[in-house]
C-alpha cells in the first residue's frame, strides 16, 4: 500500500514510518524541512504542511491511506489541531483518500467515569490549552465524512520502551497506562491494513499479557 504520513519527523511519526516500511509499504513522509530528516530511511521525504488543504491534496493523491502525527508546538493548539483536521478533511477527499488515522491525546477521551480524562478529579491540568486544542481537533473530525480514527494512547507514552508488537484496545482512557511509540505504530498500521474501527476515537493500551488480545 502507499501511505502518506504527516508529521513524519516527530517521535510518533518516525516510528509509524519505520513500521510501515518494515511491512513493505511505500511511504511518503511529510515534514516541514526534509533536510533535517535524513533518518527517515527509504521513505520519500517531502515538504508539506498538514494545516494547508492544498498541501494535503497534492501529497495524498495516489495514496491508499493517511496518518497524521503532526504537532506544531509553536502554534496555538486551539488553532493548529482543528486546522489540521479541517485541512485533512478538505484535502484528502479530492485526493481520493478516505482512510485517516489521526494520532491524538488520551486526555480528551472518556476515562473510567465516562467524562473526558482531563475533567476527572485530580487530573493534571497545566497543559489544558493543549488538551482543549486536541479536543477541538477531534470535534472537527466528527463532522467529517472521511473514514477516520482518532487513535490515542490510553494513558501516555513510555518514552524509553521499545517494540513488543503487542497492544490492546482499551475500554477507556487511563492516566496510568503506558505504551511505547513503536507499539502505537503497530496499532496504527494494523488499523490501516485491517480496518476494525471507523469514525471513532480509539484508546490504545500498552502491551497485553501473552494470553491477552491485540
Automatic annotation (TrEMBL):
- Gene3D superfamilies from the xrefs? NAD(P)-binding Rossmann-like Domain
- Give the originating organism: Streptomyces mimosae
Q: What is this protein called?
A: NAD(P)H-binding protein
Q: Which residues form a coiled coil?
A: none
Q: Where is the signal peptide, in residue numbers?
A: none
**Biological classification of the source:** Bacteria, Bacillati, Actinomycetota, Actinomycetes, Kitasatosporales
Identify the InterPro entries for this entry.
Answer: NAD(P)-bd_dom, NAD(P)-bd_dom_sf, Polyketide_Oxido-like
GO terms assigned for molecular function: oxidoreductase activity, acting on the CH-NH group of donors, NAD or NADP as acceptor
Q: In what residue span(s) does the NAD(P)-binding domain sit? A: 7-195
Amino acid at each position: 500500500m502507499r501511505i502518506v504520513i504527516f508529521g513524519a519527523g516527530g517521535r510518533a511519526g518516525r516510528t509509524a514510518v519505520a513500521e510501515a516500511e518494515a511491512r513493505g509499504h511505500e511511504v511518503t513522509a511529510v515534514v516541514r524541512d526534509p533536510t533535517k530528516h535524513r533518518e527517515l530511511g527509504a521513505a520519500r521525504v517531502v515538504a508539506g504542511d498538514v494545516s494547508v488543504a492544498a498541501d494535503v491534496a497534492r501529497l495524498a493523491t495516489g495514496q491508499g491511506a493517511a496518518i497524521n502525527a503532526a504537532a506544531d508546538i509553536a502554534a496555538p493548539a486551539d488553532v493548529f489541531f482543528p486546522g489540521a483536521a479541517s485541512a485533512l478533511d478538505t484535502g484528502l477527499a479530492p485526493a481520493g483518500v478516505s482512510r485517516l488515522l489521526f494520532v491524538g491525546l488520551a486526555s480528551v477521551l472518556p476515562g473510567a467515569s465516562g467524562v473526558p480524562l482531563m475533567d476527572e478529579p485530580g487530573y493534571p491540568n497545566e497543559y489544558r490549552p493543549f488538551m482543549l486544542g486536541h479536543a477541538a481537533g477531534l470535534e472537527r473530525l466528527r463532522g467529517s465524512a472521511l473514514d477516520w480514527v482518532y487513535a490515542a494512547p490510553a494513558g501516555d507514552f513510555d518514552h524509553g520502551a521499545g517494540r513488543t508488537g503487542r497492544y490492546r484496545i482499551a475500554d477507556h482512557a487511563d492516566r496510568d497506562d503506558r505504551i511505547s511509540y513503536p507499539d502505537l505504530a503497530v496499532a496504527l498500521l494494523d488499523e490501516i491494513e485491517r480496518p476494525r474501527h471507523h469514525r471513532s476515537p480509539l484508546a490504545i493500551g500498552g502491551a497485553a499479557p501473552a494470553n491477552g488480545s491485540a
